[in-house]
Amino acid sequence: MAKNKVFKTMDGNEAAAYVSYAFTEVATIYPITPSSPMADHVDAWATNGKKNLFGQPVKLVEMQAESGAAGAMHGSLETGSLTSTYTASQGLLLMIPPMYRIAGSQLPGVMHVSARTVATHSLSIFGDHSDVMACRQTGWAQLASASVQESMDLGAVAHLSAIKGSIPFQHFFDGFRTSHEIQKIEVLDYEDLGKMLDWDAVQRFKDHALSTEHPTLRNTLQNPDTFFQSREACNSAYDALPAIVEEYMGKINEVTGRNYQLFNYYGAPDAEQVIIAMGSVCDTIEETIDYMLAQGKKVGLVKVRLYRPFSVDAFVSAIPETVKKITVLDRTKEPGALGEPLYLDVVAALKQAGKFQDVPVFTGRYGLGSKDTNPAQIIAVYNNTEKPRFTIGIEDDVTGLSLPIGENPNTTPEGTTCCKFWGLGSDGTVGANKNSIKIIGDHTDMYAQAYFAYDSKKSGGVTISHLRFGKSPIKSTYFVNKANFVACHNPSYIDKYDMVEDVVPGGSFLLNCQWTVDELDEKLPAPVKAYIAKNNINFYIINAIKVAKEIGLGNKTNTVLQSAFFSIANIIPAEDAIEYMKKAAYKSFAKKGDDIVKMNYAAIEKGAGEVIKVDVPASWADAEGTLPVHTATGDRKDLVDFVNNILIPVNAQRGDKLPVSTFVGMADGTFPQGSAAYEKRGIAAVSYTHLTLPTIA
Predict the structure, then answer these.
(1) From the centroid of its chain, how far is CA 250?
(2) pLDDT tens across 39-62, in order?
(3) Are residues 238 and 293 in the same domain?
(4) Which ranges in 234-363 belong to alpha helices (H)?
(5) Which of 509, 457, 459, 451 shows the shortest CA–CA distance to 480?
(6) How far apart (Å, rounded) are the C-alpha atoms in residues 87 and 506?
(7) Is 516 inside a domain boundary?
(8) What is the DSSP string of 111-169?
(9) Residues 46-56, buried b or exposed e (16+ Cβ, 10 A)?
(10) Phi, psi of 193, deg, nearest 5
């Protein structure tokens, strides 16, 4: 009798942690964003007595630094304990010296990496592949996941292959875009994983461990006469590894019904234009391919799974014979190189295979520092015939590498509902939306996705929650820009950010404010009123600030607004929504005491009833004007220019539109001092005043 599939709503970090726990005896960790939640989950499960495949809780050891965690991993593996770690970015780079030793000793450790930007001219906490690309020479196998589901499935493949192949694995997925994206996924059964595990290989690893019972001489000093030869002796292990990975992908495929290959092809069987890529962008490319195939375009994607060791035969066989142009997308920058890493590997593989010699190979950079990559950019890549080297997602008006981007089409499957919530960091908006998407994912048959965009300030900064749900699988690994529902949780945002324009005609807009219906005509900016009226927007207001204060929650309006969302969106029956929200509230706040729980229950009950639908006056359609524009003035030209050209657009959420020329003269990361005084945002939710900037002296 076939097992019932178990689905759960979780993010990529939890998915990777869940599957790694099964195969891990010891976890050596040092916390670093965005990988920390993986270790947090492992720690919590171990504390609660959760058993791994070996019938025991994981032993978790927190070190004083990432280098210490990697060193401890090496020691733990040498003494016969299957060991995992979790890291990213600078933390990963500090682990590199022990990584060489672990690979050299052919130890089956596994490292799960939420791939993140490495600091160069500036620090970025966000995602790209610059950290994992710095490790491609260490001897660790590298396996790339493109989604939350893959983080679980291929995480298992990494552990199984490491044990059987006696080679350490680096399993990576995009930091934030996958690590923090919440999806409804199928959860693998530990019993199934136990059946896949090569227990003989586990025993061989145990028998090979360093022990006082049978002393072993290992990791000696070698001279020029022998080092080269002994270094080459590992070749057969790496040559055998792709087949091992393929074997375990097959076992996962058998259990799940999914199709994992070393290189997966998606698209037209007779494609003429093919993109090579890895990571979360692959889902966006697949969604765009579906859109373009419906228009008769012959396009495709080769999705890279096993990046190291790179299997030439498997790669070449995945490319359609009809291809006329190949484009490689890299999510990293290697200054001074002939091309980025994946591109160079692709060119070398094609040369070695002796195939597609006459097919031009283009190379493009995308998504550095978590820059959003949307379908319009992918269409531009397929349409590009002029620039063999290019960038997408930015305007390069200095070296001219960027591709022109057309209008972003709606490529999401029909029936997908898209929502966008504007909140203030620490106001609870993100937490409430996490609960909302889990309610939808766990209590309906719908697919669900949530992603949260915020700047480095986090607390006190702007947060934007992007939610999608529907009957079809969701591959939209990019921001929502055509929303059925938009909520503004902070009234001060209404004249600062272009948010209403994200609502599709006939959609809904919810504004949390202290204004009455009669005051709206005076308080709302002209562009907002005009867009609402001209596009038949269903406009709602709620005074969640007043409700929260009356209940005793102070400025914590998140639960009130979550209830308002469910009452407007009508995704699930109102009484069910209230019950599910109360359960989520209890889980979130029970540790803070019964009074807090009861307050949130009251907020849930009142939130739905306090929503007011506004009867939009026809006169709003004729409203004329623009959002306020603020300009700094003064004698310090360098600072004035910086504030006006960079600081003000960034604070207005328009930094994505700044061209490369804006940063000429700042390539080394040097900014003028004194700008913090002019970063006044005027974001108080209660009795806010319009922003005014002082003169720069």
Answers:
(1) 26
(2) 999 999 999 999 999 999 999 999
(3) no
(4) 235-256, 281-293, 312-317, 341-353
(5) 451
(6) 44
(7) yes
(8) EEEEE-PPPSSS---S--SHHHHTTTTSS-EEEE--SHHHHHHHHHHHHHHHHHHT--E
(9) beeebebbbee
(10) -65, -40
* Residue 627 C-alpha from the chain's centroid: 31
**Domain assignment present for 484:** yes
Tokens of 442: 């766990």
The Cα-based distances of 348 to 297, 345, 354, 355, 531 in angstroms read 28, 5, 10, 11, 53
CATH number, domain with residue 423: 3.40.920.10
Secondary structure percentages of the chain, helix, strand, coil, to 5: 40, 20, 40
- The CA-atom distances, in angstroms, between 345 and each of 19, 239, 359, 524 are 30, 17, 16, 55
Model pLDDT, residue 386: 95
CA distances to 108, 153, 665 from 194, in Å = 17, 14, 57
Helices assigned H by DSSP within 484-573: 520-523, 526-534, 544-551, 558-569
> Residue with structure tokens 């006044």?
680
- Cis preceding linkage at 309, omega within 30: yes
Token reading at 84 = 């995992």
- Residue at 62 is within a domain: yes
Q: Which two tokens stand for residue 345?
A: 């590997």
CA distances from 293 to 3, 290, 299, 413, 689 (A): 36, 5, 7, 14, 51
Q: Is 88 helix (H, G, I), strand (E, B) or coil?
A: coil
Task: Report yes or no: 474 and 455 within 8 Å, Cβ to Cβ.
Answer: no
Report the first-to-last Cα separation within the chain, whole angstroms: 78
What tokens appear for 25 in the block?
A: 């005896």
Shared-domain flag, residues 600 and 636? no
> Distance between CA 125 and CA 119 in Å, rounded?
8
- Helix axis angle, 36-47 to 12-23, nearest 10°: 50
pLDDT at residue 426 in the model: 80
Q: Which helix (H) or strand (E) holds 677?
A: none
Residues 6+ apart with CB under 8 A from 334: 133, 340, 341
Identity of the residue numbered 690? H
Whole-angstrom Cα distance, residue 5 to residue 631?
57
CATH of the domain at 103: 3.40.50.970
Same domain, 558 and 635: no
Q: Average pLDDT, whole number, for the chain?
A: 94
Q: How many CB atoms lie within 10 A of CB 176?
A: 24
What's the structural domain count of the chain?
4
Tell me the torsion sign for CA atoms 353, 354, 356, 361: positive
d(CA 595, CA 244): 56
Dihedral Cα 451, 457, 458, 461, nearest 10 deg: -90
pLDDT attached to residue 687: 47
CA–CA dist 621, 643 (Å, integer): 34
Task: Quote the pTM value.
Answer: 0.95
Give me the domain span that covers residue 471: 417-622
User: Which H or E run contains 450?
Assistant: strand 447-454
Cα separation, 375 vs 13, in Å, equals 25
| Residues β-bridged to residue 325 | 273
- pLDDT given for residue 281 in this prediction: 98
All residue ranges of the chain with pLDDT < 50 are: 1, 687-689
Calpha distance 170→596 (Å, rounded): 43
